[in-house]
Amino acid sequence: MLEIKDLTVFYGTEKAVRELSMKVSGEVVCLCGRNGAGKSTVLRAVAGIVHVDSGQILLDGKDVIPIPLHKRLESGIGYVPEDRKLFKEMTVRENIEVAKIGVKASGRKEMNIDELLPELASLYNRKSKLLSGGQQKLVSIARAIATSPNVLLFDEVLEGLARSMMIKISEIVTKIKAEGKDILCAESSLDKAGMYADRIIWLEKGQIVATGSPAEIKKQISDSIRAR
Ligand code: ATP
Fold first, then answer.
1. What is the pLDDT of residues 140-179, one digit of tens each?
2. Cβ contacts of residue 195 below 8 Å, gap of 6+?
3. Which atom of ligand 1 is nearest to the CA of 38?
4. pLDDT at position 105, please?
5. Domain ranges of the chain
6. Is the CB of 207 within 6 Å of ligand 1?
7. Are strands 2-11 and 54-59 parallel, antiparallel or unpaired?
8. Is the pTM higher than 0.70?
9. What is the distance between the alpha carbons of residues 44 and 142, in angstroms, rounded to a whole number?
10. Beta bridge partners of 7
11. pLDDT value for 107
12. Which segments of the chain are extended strands (E)?
């Protein structure tokens, strides 16, 4: 289980995330909200990429904030960043093998990449720079699951993709959840989040303003627009 307690993150003097608390347990939770609401910052804080000013990030009850970045992903957190971050000159296979370094001794049950992402099988020997945007997203997901994490973070994983690829990736996220993983995502569009999320957390200015199923949040938004 992932539990975030009273998380606060500043960039300089700007408070990007304000005393935010939430839990993810056996579900896909998606942070939604306008640009600048703080979605990516929450994911980056969990991944260890931004400095946390106060609060706790508990992975199965253990606070991971003191764990440095290079050890954080080894500790059971898989991160799919918005911009994919692949080694462009390496093949797909090499990108995945590099991600496995350091986690072999973790003792966690290895996830089966071939089963979860069968569409990668024909691409293993291709250099990553030669892949389409959607294929690169698949490799980025494979890199994240190569570390056999208990918690996965997906930042705008459907952004910029053709509808058929959005459906494919939504199905992959659902399959990963079925393996017992906790999944925290961010999407700026509620429609995209609704393709795979069990629960939406709506953020404004770094704070939670609503939480519910995609249908409940859609209704709350249209009710508030109507009430204006
Ligand atoms: P988007 O959908 O545009 O990525 P977001 O909801 O993910 O938006 P964040 O990227 O988390 O929002 O940004 C939250 C706030 O922090 C915004 O006001 C943003 O301008 C600011 N911010 C984000 N990254 C930095 C940074 N590296 N330095 C300074 N301010 C930042």
1. 999 999 988 999 999 999 999 999 999 999 999 999 999 9
2. 158, 166, 167, 170
3. 11
4. 63
5. 2-226
6. no
7. antiparallel
8. yes
9. 19
10. 20
11. 72
12. 2-11, 14-24, 28-32, 54-59, 62-63, 77-80, 151-155, 182-187, 199-204, 207-212
Select from 159, 153, 154, 139 the least CA-distant residue to 86. 139
Tokens of 140: 């980025």
Domain 2-226 coded CATH 2.30.42.10: no
Compute the average pLDDT of residues 185-212.
Answer: 96
Is the CB of 81 within 6 Å of ligand 1? Answer: no
DSSP, residue by residue, 71-131: HHGGGTEEEE-TT----TTSBHHHHHHHHHTTTGGG-PPPP-HHHH-GGGGGGTTSBGGGS
Specify the amino acid at residue 118: P
- How much of the chain exceeds pLDDT 70, in percent? 96
CB-ligand 1 contact for 35 (6 Å cutoff): yes
Average pLDDT, the chain: 92
Test site for ligand 1: of 20, 35, 53, 189, most ligand atoms within 8 A of the Cβ: 35
111 pLDDT more than 80: yes
